[in-house]
Amino acid sequence: MASARDLAVASISAAVGAAAAAAALRFLSSYGASSAKQRSPPTPCAEHLAVNGCTAERPPVQSPFDPAKREGYISWDDYFMAIAFLSAERSKDPNRQVGACLVSQEGIILGIGYNGFPRGCSDNKLPWAKKSAKGDPLETKYPYVVHAEVNAILNTNHASAAGQKLYVTMFPCNECAKIIIQSGVSEVIYFVEKRIDNSDYVYVASHKLLSMAGVKETPTTDVTNTNQVSGASKRAVHCQVVKSGFAPDCHVRNALLARYAACDPDLAHAEQMFDEMPRPEVVAWTTMITSYRNRGRTFHALATFRRMLAAHVAPNRVTMVAALGACAAHCAVDTGIWIHEYVQKQGWEMDVVLGTALVDMYGKCGKVSDGMHVFSKMAKRNVYTWNSIIGALALAQDGKTALQWFSRMQNDGVQPDEVTLICVLCACAHAGFVDIGRKIFNLAIQGEYGFQPGIKHFGCMVDLLSRSGHLDDAFRVVETMPSQPNAVIWGLLLRGCRARGDSWLSEHVTMRLVELEPENASHYVLLSNLYAETGRWQEAQGILHWMKKKGLRKDAGWSLQIESCLCFPSEFGCDHNMAPPTPRLVVPIDVSKKPWEQKVPLHNRWHPDIPPVADVTEGELFRVEMVDWTGGRVSDDNSADDIKFLDLTITHYLSGPLRIVDAEGVPASPGDLLAVEICNLGPLPGDEWGYTAIFERENGGGFLTDHFPSARKAIWYFEGIYAYSPQIPGVRFPGLTHPGIVGTAPSAELLNIWNEREKILAETNHESIKICEVLHQRPLANLPTPENCLLGKIQEGTADWQKIANEAARTIPGRENGGNCDIKNLSRGSKVYLPVFVDGANLSTGDMHFSQGDGEVSFCGAIEMSGFLELKCEIIRGGMKEYLTPIDESGKQHFLDASVAYKRAVLNAIEYLSRFGYSKEQVYLLLSCCPCEGRISGIVDSPNAVATLAIPTAIFDQDVKPKRLSGKQGPKLRRLPDVLRCSSDGHLPVTQDPSGTKVASTVAGSQENVPIKGMVRKRTQLDG
Prior knowledge:
Blueprint: E1 6-14, E2 20-27, H1 76-88, E3 99-103, E4 109-114, H2 148-154, E5 165-170, H3 174-183, E6 187-192, H4 201-213, E7 216-219, H5 231-243, H6 250-263, H7 268-276, H8 282-294, H9 298-310, H10 317-330, H11 333-346, H12 352-364, H13 368-377, H14 383-395, H15 399-411, H16 418-431, H17 434-445, H18 455-467, H19 471-479, H20 487-500, H21 503-516, H22 521-533, H23 537-550, H24 569-572, E8 584-587, E9 614-617, E10 622-626, H25 641-644, E11 654-661, E12 673-682, E13 689-694, E14 712-719, E15 722-724, E16 732-734, E17 738-743, H26 748-764, H27 799-807, E18 818-820, E19 831-835, E20 843-849, E21 859-864, E22 867-876, H28 879-882, H29 899-913, H30 920-929, E23 933-939, E24 944-952, E25 1007-1012, E26 1015-1020
Parallel strand pairs: 5-6, 6-7, 8-10, 9-11
Antiparallel strand pairs: 1-2, 1-24, 3-4, 3-5, 10-22, 11-20, 12-19, 12-22, 13-14, 13-21, 14-15, 15-16, 17-18, 17-20, 23-24, 25-26
Helix pairs in contact: 1-5, 3-4, 6-7, 6-8, 8-9, 8-10, 9-10, 10-11, 10-12, 12-13, 12-14, 13-14, 14-15, 14-16, 15-16, 16-17, 16-18, 17-18, 18-19, 18-20, 19-20, 20-21, 21-22, 22-23, 29-30
InterPro entries: APOBEC/CMP_deaminase_Zn-bd, CMP_dCMP_dom, Cytidine_deaminase-like, Deoxycytidylate_deaminase_dom, E_motif, FmdA_AmdA, PPR_rpt, TPR-like_helical_dom_sf
GO biological process, one term: nucleotide biosynthetic process
GO molecular function: dCMP deaminase activity; hydrolase activity, acting on carbon-nitrogen (but not peptide) bonds, in linear amides; zinc ion binding
């Protein structure tokens, strides 16, 4: 049964030779599936009253003491800054409009101004140019213009500027700074600096002058915070920025983004503004990464970091520190190691901030020795660096070493802080050092470290004492705390009581928890269990009856399966040996190098004599990295020229071969089966992008070459499990990552069979077997050729290379050894069984796909990418005798004529989706890689069959379901000839912002502009 949220385009055709017949369109909907959309439009009639005849309920009367009454109002700071932006609109400067507003300490506007020429000096006679073509400074604006700050101070109507605040849209230059100082202004609140790095000497001088004169400098992001600023306040300033013409300025955009990021709890407005940036710079990327990290959204932080790298934006130190913080919180050790290697390759100095971030990352990911190595290389260290290393040792339950480092820290003259004490007490708790912990805690209470312990320190002490069985002492610590103990403190004590079997104290502590959190059902369940354990059944039953009466119910527990993630013993109470093993890297890949330049050589042929590059033991977890199938010949850009001129005599580059042996070192033998389990897979860190392509007709074409003869390309960027493309905007879907090729080496006998079989096929069946004119001049099988042959360790030009190159089979098509099968469900957790034809099996992998549609209809139709596989192998001795082989009894290859029906289904889908603003090339590419499903859905009046293509509607930002029009069910489809015209002659259109910019898709027929969720797209005017 098709998915209930699928749009299915069906085509009926004969399965054996009959022509395609009439098409049908069906759509079913349900509420079960979750949507992949990021944002939903506001529901109609959401306003208060009478919008297009729809009314809403009157809002309830609000209390005058309700702080929510301030929501929707802008702050005074934003109000005065908006006035400055408003005044800037009066400026006639075509290059940059600047405004200023002078405000008294009582909030009274004293004067406003904008940049312009002096009174009586006409701009019809004076220049606005920033540079002179002749190099004459008198032909520029600078000798004549009066700055906005000066005009605001002069326009005060004799009021004094002394002690007042000046709001200005741009940080003042050194000349303005002199006047600001002389007039007595006490504070300058500015929106943006002209240069983000302050490298211009006039602004360096301005900062220096204002600092020396004691004038406070405040960026707008510092005068607001999350609790004080409403959405209306931020939008008011943003609105004035746009109206004043500042919006395109990258520095202004970065300042606005920083403002939204600082004030948005959920970052919704910051995300929207970031998405609207055409080409975000490193400052904008870093702002988003830092904001995600600070809000605990570490997955989004890492996904944004990878998107930045995929966009070829070079990170800076601040970016790396933010990304390392996310790696530490998310246990993303692979990304953290990549960052460390990047820093080393760039030759960056290991300063205290970057070094501390690395130490913290390694420590929280369980690689304490690596963190210590970084620590030893740092020239300068601060208290945060020491805290990171001590905290890492505490997490690793190495209390003795943690205390040694604590002593070293003090000997180096570094004063411990509150975090240091938490780390040390945790280390003592894990190691059972009760006396040492007491001593350190007492020293802190006596003020030895310059601060008084807080509630977290008391919690650590309670944990230390209760873990070691000193329950009475732990209870006294709780009772004598200077602040009221919270539920966490009582919970720590309760854990110790339960572990020691102290039922009386457990009951007492549980009662305290009930008093603190009377609505928490888990406390009552625990109390009931305590009564039951001591035989007090009536009281236990009474608790449960009382819970039922009050409607309290304990939430159901959840279990998590965490793959490829390090779980810390201190957090999960597990042994070190329970942490997932780190896979051994047997084939590393450097994407900056060509396939033949890799450290471990690659190959692109099947032959028994290609030597293995490594041995892998049965049951061992190992990692294989792979280039994309072209070996990096396709670029991350909007040009399809690399696809148009791609040399298709080159076939898939494979990693391997790998020799598989058992625990005794005996290799797999011919006749065995090799079970290959995919434990993990994904794109290579730092290379999270892929592409889908349509080949040129002359270069082989695709399934619909007659209709789409020209080369096209779509670039996809990966955001976690999701993919999105600027060339196909408004679409976002989860991928099912999988390898296109997993196979073993053929024997010499099998290789001869392949070559003979495919030679006959090429010579005799080329004209008799044509699938809907799809193949054109492309042969069904490519015979062996030395051209572009890569044979791993065998050097080109040698006698061995010449012999093997003339015999070796190309990687297309899939054969008895597995090979190029492109099975998209062969993903994480899958196991494939491959026959063994040579000693060691000689396993090879390649052709990684992030996602793939059924059929890969554009031929290069998956999202092709570089990637990695983490595998385990099992040798089934004699398995080929026990199980069926992958060939039939005749040894022949077969072809299905049902392709005719599927071709019509795909064409129907392209025609339908082109009505929603996409060009037909865009839909063609989309159907090749999105999670659609092509099926022979049923046999109708045999030998006829129904072929369907089901497309999940959740991947679209817009509603693509058929609409009810004029009382008719569904749209009225207009019949088109079989040969559809190509809807674009050039490269694919591109949007710089997938969520809100204009898409230019030139299509045949009359055109209209159709607004779709903030996006203007052109589409064909169709009937119905």
